[in-house]
Amino acid sequence: MRDRRGGADDRRPARPQAVALYTAEEKRRRDATPWTLVQGILAPVQFVAFLVSLALVLRYLATGEGLWIATCSIVVKTLLLYAIMVTGSIWERVVFGRYLFARAFFWEDVFSILVLALHTAYLVAIFADIGSPRQQMMLVLAAYASYAINATQFLLKLRAARLQERNVSALAVAEVS
Questions:
Q1: For residues 91 and 85, is the Cβ–Cβ distance under 8 A?
Q2: Using N-to-C axis directions, what is the helix angle for 67-96 and 24-32, rounded to 10°?
Q3: Residue 8 DSSP SS3
Q4: 160 phi and psi, to 5 degrees?
């Protein structure tokens, strides 16, 4: 680029600034609400239920045994999903002022709807006796794959938030020094 005098312009385009996940007020509300703790408890409980259920589903698909226990585990996992979705929506309302699709978690919420739809489709299939047990289990595998992707989205978002908070803290300490 050349400046008005014909010389080289050594101004470089500004690097885009990372948008903070939380404003100071949102962070205050996040830290103050008991729903943060509820989410912090439900998320790992649901993940453990997912791992156990996945093992039971794969066992059924491999051996044809254990349909009842696999089905029970899927129902438990799905009920935990509903619980985390409802409480997560309340958490999002407290922190961001909306029940779903807040700026900070928009894409995670979009994908969560897919996860919820697939899990619900499985419940409909078992209660309405739609498809064979094997077909129902394949639907569960699709639901579980979407859940794994969604869980990864949330983990990456939380990691980014922690790194951002650490960088802000380090910058504040450096400015004081």
A1: no
A2: 130
A3: strand
A4: -60, -40
Structure tokens at 123: 């419940």
Structure tokens at 6: 């014909």
β-partners of residue 2 are: 8
Query: 39 near 88, Cβ under 8 Å?
Result: yes
Q: What is the residue-level pLDDT of the chain in tens, covering all 177 positions?
A: 445 555 555 555 554 555 678 888 989 999 999 999 999 999 999 999 999 999 999 999 999 999 999 999 999 999 999 999 999 999 999 999 999 998 888 989 999 999 999 999 999 999 999 999 999 999 999 999 999 999 999 889 888 877 877 776 665 556 666
pTM for the model stands at: 0.79
The helix/strand/coil state of 63 is helix
Q: Give me the long-range contacts of 61-64 (CB less than 8 A, separation at least 24).
A: 61/134, 61/137
Q: Report the alpha-carbon distance of residue 149 to residue 141 in Å, rounded.
A: 12
In the chain, the N- to C-terminal Cα span, in Å, equals 38
